[in-house]
Amino acid sequence: NGLYADNCLLDVDHNATGELVIEKNTRLIAQSAVMGNQIESVVIPQSVTIICDFAFSNCTLLKSIDIPDSVTEIGKYCFENCRELESVSLPSNITTLSKALFIGCGVLKSIKLPENLKTIGDDVFNACFKLENIKIPESVEKIGKYAFCYCYNFTSVVIPDSVKILDDRAFHSCENIKTVKLGNSLEYIGDGAFFS
């Protein structure tokens, strides 16, 4: 049900449904490879190290995904508009959450961020309406623009001491936030970081 070359998943049959099992020994999932499919779950083997931009974008029936620790890079917009995505297991080796990684994942409720994470990119959790308070690891140095925009269920935010940059409108329209604790290493707080 997929087109492979040199241990890379290039494309998946657009009529694929149910569970997608990616072949063993696959090392890379190409840009837009699974985009727009009607799959509900994915099994990614431990051999995969890179998931490219838009790989699972607009898989509107995808409910859960477990990304193995072998993965060290996940591209931008990878899970954009996966509107039924409820749970994600992120690999421990990821240091950057790329731009708009989970934008529009409106039913995503909780996610554990990796302990080695350094950067939460722009728009990563934008429009994740159901996402609840999230623990930002002590390793994070930058929180990007609109990173948690429209996360309505946030009631409190703790910015750890490691964070140096809290970019523009990072928590824009998180209208239920009642308490904020800022770390002591901040060098920049962007325009309207907590504007609601």
Lay out the secondary structure.
Elements (H helix, E strand, L loop, with lengths): L1 E4 L2 E5 L4 E5 L6 E2 L8 E6 L6 E2 L12 E3 L6 E2 L12 E3 L6 E2 L21 E2 L21 E2 L12 E3 L6 E2 L12 E3 L6 E2 L7
Parallel strand pairs: 2-4, 3-5, 4-6, 5-7, 6-8, 7-9, 10-11, 11-12, 12-14, 13-15, 14-16
Antiparallel strand pairs: 1-2
How many individual helices?
0
Total strands: 16
Average pLDDT rating: 97
The spatial strand order of the largest sheet comes to 1-2-4-6-8
Provide a concise account of the structure shown:
The protein is built from no helices and 16 strands. It has 196 residues and is mostly beta strands.
Question: How would you characterize this protein structure?
Answer:
- The chain has 196 residues and is mostly beta strands.
- 0% of the residues lie in helices and 24% in strands.
- Strands 1-2-4-6-8 form a 5-stranded mixed β-sheet, with no helix packed on it.
- The chain starts with a strand and ends in a 7-residue tail after the last strand.
- The mean pLDDT is 97.
